[in-house]
Amino acid sequence: MTDEELKELVASLAIKSDRLDAQIQETNATLKRVGVDFGNMKKNQGDIAEEFFFNSLLDDPHLGGIHFDDIVKSQFKHRGNLQEEYDIVMTNGDAIGIVEVKYKAHENDLKQLERKMRNFKTLFPWFKDYKLYGAIASFNFYDKAKEEALNQGFFVLQRSGKVVQTDCGENLLVM
């Protein structure tokens, strides 16, 4: 190979390398954008599930035979180095119900609920004498997750039956 041919080869490789770098940057940007889109879709599904279970529990705030007087959703608490987000919390005079809401519940979600329950009385010390109940609510459960939730003594909340509410305004369209 002559010096001139070697120079042309190196120049050609440099151009191809620049093109490859540009293509990699474009691919990374696309992957990042897609990741954000999938992340937002997951968050949106979670928000839908949370809204559904919150509205369902508003009408009849209970876990099994335990009835509650108050219900709040999306409660963030930070105390010292400890921080948690509670999807739904229900209270009465001597009990707290913590409901972890998922669109599709996995076994790992039970560990998250367990941790949140352990941290609850540290984050809210004025509830130290209250009984604490845990529940996992989901539109869909992996069989193992539901079985494990029940084995660990958690309540399991799922959709079932008639879940459609129909409202209409004064200007009902009739054709």
What does this structure look like?
It is a single chain. This protein has helices at residues 3-59, 107-123, 143-151, and strands at 62-63, 66-67, 70-79, 82-91, 95-105, 131-141, 155-157. The chain is α/β, with parallel strands linked by helices and 175 residues long. It has a domain at 45-157: Trna Endonuclease, Chain: A, domain 1 (3-Layer(aba) Sandwich). Helix 2 (107-123) runs parallel beside helix 3 (143-151). The longest helix has 57 residues, at 3-59. The chain is elongated.
Defining traits:
Trna Endonuclease, Chain: A, domain 1; alpha/beta; elongated; two-stranded antiparallel ribbon; 175 residues; 3 helices
Give a summary of the structure in a few sentences:
The protein is of the alpha/beta class and 175 residues long. The protein contains 3 helices and 7 strands.
Tell me the major beta sheet.
Answer: 5 strands, mixed
Number of helices: 3
Strand content: 25-35%
**CATH domain class of the domain at 45-157:** Alpha Beta
The CATH topology label of the domain at 45-157 is Trna Endonuclease, Chain: A, domain 1
Task: Give me the secondary-structure category.
Answer: alpha/beta
- The run of helices and strands is HEEEEEHEHE
Percentage of helical residues? 40-55%
Spatial separation of the terminal alpha carbons: 84 Å
Mean pLDDT: 82
Show unreliable segments.
none
CATH architecture term of the domain at 45-157: 3-Layer(aba) Sandwich
- What Rg, in angstroms, do the CA atoms define? 26 Å
